[in-house]
Structure formats: structure tokens, C-alpha cells
């Protein structure tokens, strides 16, 4: 949920809802709602989910890790897989995680054995502009402070493994460079789990021969590290170690790739990640089991929680409700074309989340005016939603429903128009009030999802793996983004030819672009036409198993806004955190 959406809901809460007393208004923020909850011990949640006791590793009273060997202990019949995705994000907010959590709670109310699978938040967005990622209102996973901050230390472990590899790489060069690594062609960056634009580009190794070899370097945010993607796609310790060994860190003077395996780094890196590989078990405010594990960004990585957590949720529940980051052009595309392809997953239904306010934003309305009825702007903005729906139904051949995260400012005429246009596309619409009412506010959505899961589908990918890299880029650009074509800039075409020559041409692609538009220009809202996708660089993530295609001006290290969320976060003398949102 975006900051604008939260602010609006809090305002509506003040105006319309009397809490605890009929004589005064009481305002509760998301964190206050979470702190007022009475969670069950995590051992009870594990029992409810069916997690064997010998596979449970407690991290205090309300969170635990589940040993991945649980999946090998006995055979499980996998449940139905439901993906929650959304329109392209706007400052008005959409509420994808909130909808995911509320839908899981609603299905539990209907008597369905449901387990949720979400990503872990990164500290960068938590302290930056986006805020946390534990849901909102009465549809949250808890303990929200832990989940949004250090949690069980997974992101720190990924950071340490990433930087161990960087240190071993530079040490190899300092100690004689037996592999013949060209320091001008090192591709591996250091990382940290924070937004810090000062670290994007730098020179390291200054200060004399004892301090290493001077060269250009930089930092990525941890969520953009290939190790994050590797962890989220790995299916076992042996698979994790093999993927780590395949990571390409640079190239030799004779143009051969150098890997982490060449540096003998994979064993130590895996040792740092052995606990991080285990999915984290928590609960919703209503006691629905939830795995929160892994957190790659969908605009610069594949944007899904771990394969391990998804498979655990499918094994333990009759329904697994999961999400993919940002809009369906990024998160859902990569969920289908990368994660499902690699893990052998077959989705049963898709939920596309939208708000009337966000659709009016796509129609050109300023944020300050989004509470005013504007049918013409809504109709213009609906093109964004309907294009996502069309992609889900006609490219991926999956049934879907639109979840309208409802605001009190939404008028009946606006709701009627939205339903009419969705009806013309043959897609159902459910009004969702899970932020305000928890699971009870998502019953209609849950019923529609249950029905969709019973429909047969012909799930397809948007491109074949055996196509060339350029053909795959063209397929996603034209079939999903609806671009006219692709323009290759700088060294990108030369790099594509080199990667194909090195044998990487049959990997899936992971296009990094702005999350705000179907195009690579954040200002092109709605469903733009008459544009090209501009590819400026291409690199291989051989450990993760995909080709990263960098478009537009997307960056792998975000910066903080003028007034970062961190300015409002505090803790009192009793250790109680406030201002998280």
C-alpha cells in the first residue's frame, strides 16, 4: 500500500469510524492496529498449517523458520495457486499486499485451508518513500515491525554473501590475478539493504598498493543482488550452491567469463545462506498462516517470493495466495515466464488489484483531485487495467478477477462504469473492503477466486525459451507492453551477441524497467501506444538463470526522497516503535 493510500484511509477512518467510544473518534495507524493485536504463538500457527514440529525453528514467540527438508519428508498434494497482481502503481496506491492478506483471511472464513506466501520488505523502501510491505489496516501480517525491519536476518545474510564474493574477487586480483581477470570488465557489485545514491558509482582501491587495485565499482541495493534472486529460485542446499558457483563476476582479458566457482567462493557463501534459505512462518491478524520469504524487486529483478516458500504453502494448504511486485507487466510477467517456468508451477487464477483513484490518476487527474467524481478520467485510466486483464487472459490464458480496493470517495457511477468496462472484457469484478474489515471485507472476492480455480486453463508463456534473446525481448515488449518495437542503444547489441556466443542465449529474460508505465518512460500512463522499448545494456545472471535487460533509466540502487519515511520513525524508552506507518 502506498503512502497516499494510507493517508487517505486514515483520514476516512477519522471521519467515519468511531472506535471504542461513541463520544470520540480514535485514529489508529497500521502499526497501532498491529500492536493492538493478540497473535497466537507461532507454534499454534504451525500446527494450524500442518508444519511438522521437528521442522520448526523458533525465532521468539511469533515467528519461525521452517526447514526445507519438510518437503522431502512425505508426499504432499499441491493446492491451488492464486497470484495477486495489480495495475501499474500510482501515488494514489493500489493495495496489492493488503488484498493478498485479506483474500487469504476471507478464504479461511469460508472454510478453505489457505496459506499465504509473500516477499520480505527491503529496508530501503521502508525508510524511503514506499513504506513497509506487510499489508495495511485490518489485513496485515504480523509482527509487522519485525517483518518490516530486520525480521530473521535473511537480507543481512544475502548482503554478507554478496560482499564476501566481492572481497574474494578483489583479493584474487591483489594476490596475483591468476585467472587473468580484466579489472575494466568486472560486473559484480557490492550491495547494502538501503537506498544510498552516493554509492551508485565510485572508485575503490585507492591509497597505495596495500589497499588493492584501483578500479571503478558501485553498490546495488540488496534486493537487486543476484544472490537474492538465486536464494528465491533455489530448491535445495545443493541447488543453491550450484547456482552460486555459476554466478558470473567478470571477464578475463581473452573474453571468458569468471565465476564464483572459479574463485572457490560458493561453499562459504552457501554457509552464510544456509539458514536464510529456510522460509519464515508468521501469521495474519486473523491467524492465517503466512510464509514471508525473499524480496527481489520486480522492476530490476524477478519480483517474487521464494520458490521454497511457495511450494511449502502449496503443500500445506488447499490454496496458496501469493503476490508478485508492482504491476502485472513486471511482477506477473516474471512470475509466469521465470518463476513458474523454472519451478514447474501452474497457476489456477489471477487477481488484478485496482482502485478507482489510481485509475483516475492514470487518466490524468492530479492527486489532490482524486476524491472528486470524474468519469471521463476514469474511463481513460481504465485502459491500464483492461490491458493487464487482456494480457492475463489472452497471453497467459489464465482466468482472472478484478479486485477493486474500495474507497469511501468512490461513487456508484464510477463503480458502475468500472464494472461495465470489465464486463465487456469478460472479467468479473469484486469490491474489496479488507483494509477496513479484514477477511469479512473480502468474501465476495474469495468466492469468485474459488470458482475461478475450478475452471480449466491453458496456461502459456509469453515467449519460447529456444527463441533468441532479441526475439524474447521483442515478444515481451510487443505482447505485454504493446510497444511498436525495440531500440538497442550503446553496447547492448554487441553484448547480446557475446552472451549468445558464450551459450547463455536460451535463458529466460528479466526486463528491468520503470514500474509506473507499460513503456520505459514513467510519464506515459494508461495504456500508451506508439512507443519503443529502449535497451541500454544486457547482462547475464547465470546463477539465477536469466538474462537481465536494462531499459530506460531504471537504476539498481534507489535514492531517498526529499522527506524520507525514516524521519517519522521513532522508538520510546520501552522499545515501542512508532511511525513505521
Features:
four-stranded mixed beta sheet, twelve-stranded mixed beta sheet, 19% strand, disordered N terminus, 581 residues, alpha/beta
Describe the structure.
- The protein is an alpha/beta fold.
- The chain contains 20 helices and 25 strands.
- Strands 1, 2, 3, 4, 5, 6, 14, 15, 16, 17, 18 and 19 form a twelve-stranded mixed β-sheet that branches. A four-stranded mixed β-sheet has the order 20-22-23-21.
- A hairpin with a 5-residue loop joins β1 and β2.
- α5 (96-109) crosses α18 (443-453), α10 crosses α11 (266-273) and α14 packs across α15 (375-395).
- The longest helix is centred in the N-terminal third of the chain and has 21 residues, at 154-174.
- The radius of gyration is 23 Å and the shape is globular.
- Residues 1-26 have low confidence and may be disordered.
Amino acid at each position: 500500500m502506498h503512502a497516499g493510500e494510507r493517508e487517505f484511509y486514515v483520514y476516512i477512518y477519522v471521519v467515519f469510524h468511531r472506535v471504542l467510544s461513541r463520544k470520540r473518534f480514535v485514529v489508529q495507524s497500521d502499526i497501532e492496529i498491529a500492536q493492538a493485536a493478540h497473535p497466537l504463538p507461532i507454534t499454534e500457527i504451525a500446527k494450524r498449517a500442518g508444519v511438522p514440529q521437528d521442522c520448526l525453528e523458533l525465532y521468539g514467540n511469533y515467528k519461525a523458520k521452517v526447514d526445507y527438508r519438510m518437503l522431502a519428508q512425505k508426499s504432499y498434494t499441491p493446492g491451488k495457486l492464486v497470484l495477486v497482481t495489480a495495475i501499474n502503481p500510482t501515488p494514489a496506491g493500489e493495495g496489492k499486499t493488503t488484498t493478498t492478506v485479506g483474500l487469504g483471511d476471507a478464504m479461511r472464513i469460508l472454510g478453505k485451508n489457505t496459506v499465504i506466501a509473500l516477499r520480505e520488505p527491503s529496508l530501503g523502501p521502508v525508510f524511503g518513500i514506499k513504506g513497509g510491505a506487510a499489508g495495511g489496516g485490518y489485513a496485515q501480517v504480523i509482527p509487522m515491525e519485525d517483518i518490516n525491519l530486520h525480521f530473521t536476518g535473511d537480507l543481512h545474510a544475502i548482503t554478507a554473501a554478496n560482499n564476501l564474493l566481492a572481497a574474494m574477487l578483489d583479493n584474487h586480483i591483489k594476490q596475483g590475478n591468476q585467472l587473468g581477470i580484466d579489472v575494466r570488465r568486472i560486473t559484480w557489485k557490492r550491495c547494502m539493504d538501503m537506498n544510498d545514491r552516493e554509492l551508485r558509482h565510485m572508485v575503490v582501491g585507492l591509497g597505495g598498493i596495500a589497499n588493492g587495485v584501483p578500479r571503478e565499482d558501485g553498490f546495488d541495493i540488496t534486493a537487486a543482488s543476484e544472490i537474492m534472486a538465486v536464494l528465491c529460485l533455489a530448491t535445495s542446499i545443493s541447488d543453491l550452491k550450484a547456482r552460486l558457483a555459476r554466478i558470473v563476476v567478470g571477464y578475463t582479458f581473452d573474453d571468458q567469463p569468471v565465476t564464483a566457482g572459479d574463485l572457490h567462493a560458493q561453499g562459504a557463501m552457501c554457509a552464510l545462506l544456509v539458514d536464510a534459505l529456510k522460509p519464515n512462518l508468521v501469521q495474519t491478524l486473523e491467524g492465517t498462516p503466512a510464509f514471508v520469504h525473499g524480496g527481489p524487486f520486480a522492476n530490476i529483478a524477478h519480483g517474487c517470493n521464494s520458490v521454497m516458500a511457495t511450494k511449502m504453502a502449496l503443500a500445506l494448504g488447499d490454496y496458496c495466495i501469493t503476490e508478485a511486485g508492482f504491476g502485472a507487466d513486471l511482477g506477473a510477467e516474471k512470475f509466469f515466464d521465470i518463476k513458474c517456468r523454472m519451478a514447474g508451477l501452474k497457476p489456477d487464477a489471477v487477481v488484478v488489484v485496482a482502485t478507482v483513484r489510481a485509475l483516475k490518476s492514470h487518466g490524468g487527474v492530479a492527486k489532490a483531485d482524486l476524491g472528486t467524481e470524474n468519469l471521463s478520467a476514469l474511463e481513460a485510466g481504465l485502459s491500464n487495467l483492461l490491458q493487464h486483464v487482456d494480457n492475463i487472459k489472452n497471453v497467459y490464458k489464465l482466468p482472472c478477477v478484478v479486485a477493486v480496493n474500495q474507497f469511501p470517495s468512490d461513487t456508484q457511477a464510477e463503480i458502475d462504469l468500472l464494472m461495465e468496462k470489465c464486463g465487456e472484457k469478460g472479467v468479473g469484478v469484486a469490491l474489496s473492503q479488507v483494509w477496513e474489515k479484514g477477511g469479512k471485507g473480502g468474501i465476495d472476492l474469495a468466492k469468485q477466486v474459488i470458482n475461478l480455480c475450478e475452471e480449466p486453463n491453458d496456461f502459456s508463456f509469453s515467449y519460447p525459451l529456444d527463441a533468441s534473446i532479441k526475439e524474447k525481448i521483442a515478444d515481451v515488449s510487443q505482447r505485454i507492453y504493446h510497444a511498436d518495437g525495440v531500440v538497442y542503444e550503446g553496447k547492448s547489441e554487441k553484448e547480446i551477441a557475446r552472451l549468445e556466443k558464450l551459450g547463455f542465449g536460451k535463458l529466460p529474460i528479466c526486463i528491468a524497467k520503470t514500474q509506473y508505465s507499460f513503456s520505459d518512460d514513467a510519464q506515459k500512463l494508461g495504456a500508451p501506444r506508439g512507443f519503443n522499448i529502449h535497451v541500454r545494456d544486457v547482462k547475464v545472471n547465470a546463477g539465477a538463470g536469466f538474462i537481465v535487460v536494462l531499459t530506460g533509466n531504471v537504476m539498481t540502487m534507489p535514492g531517498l526522497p526529499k522527506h524520507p519515511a525514516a524521519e517519522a520513525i521513532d522508538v520510546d524508552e520501552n522499545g515501542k516503535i512508532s511511525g513505521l506507518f
